[in-house]
Amino acid sequence: MSENSQKKGLAIILSAPSGGGKSSIARALLAKDTTLVRSISATTRKPRPGDIDGKDYFFKSKNDFLKMINEGKLLEYSEVYGNLYGIPKDFVETQLQQGHDIIFDIDIQGAQKLKTILQNAVVSIFISPPSIQELRKRLEARKQDSPEEIDLRVNLATKEIEHAKNYDHVVVNNDFLTSVNTIYDLIKSERKKREV
Fold it and tell me: Does residue 78 carry a pLDDT above 90?
């Protein structure tokens, strides 16, 4: 048996409040280390400008998504801001069995479920904004949400930050590149621990 087939991959969970930088950090980590694999979620939310089906998300109708739930094809799923999000089971299990480390860019609900399902394979990292005021500025700057949606996201963020203590690591995203390097160092450290 080869060394690679014996070593299971890591499930690297990145969570943050909306606008906290988790998607941008995930993209930077994937660019920095081409051995990392990005988990692609299925969702019922409408694509944003520039979103590509099968690359950013698997965009599904509500009926198709419910069918995936009924057929047990999702590792976990949850409703966020009125949209359904879920992680396709086969893709994740195959990648981990092959020894690939997967990055999950998911919310707190999803993170808790994945930790229960994948247990020892999980390394969880919470990316915290420097402040709620800074988070509001970032959400406004990205110009993707209405003022009402921004208020909703900021209110939810306050509650989400309280869950940071349930994660293996917390990184405050003051500076993007510093945050990327800090998280990459954490991943390398976790890989070393598992080699022992």
Answer: no
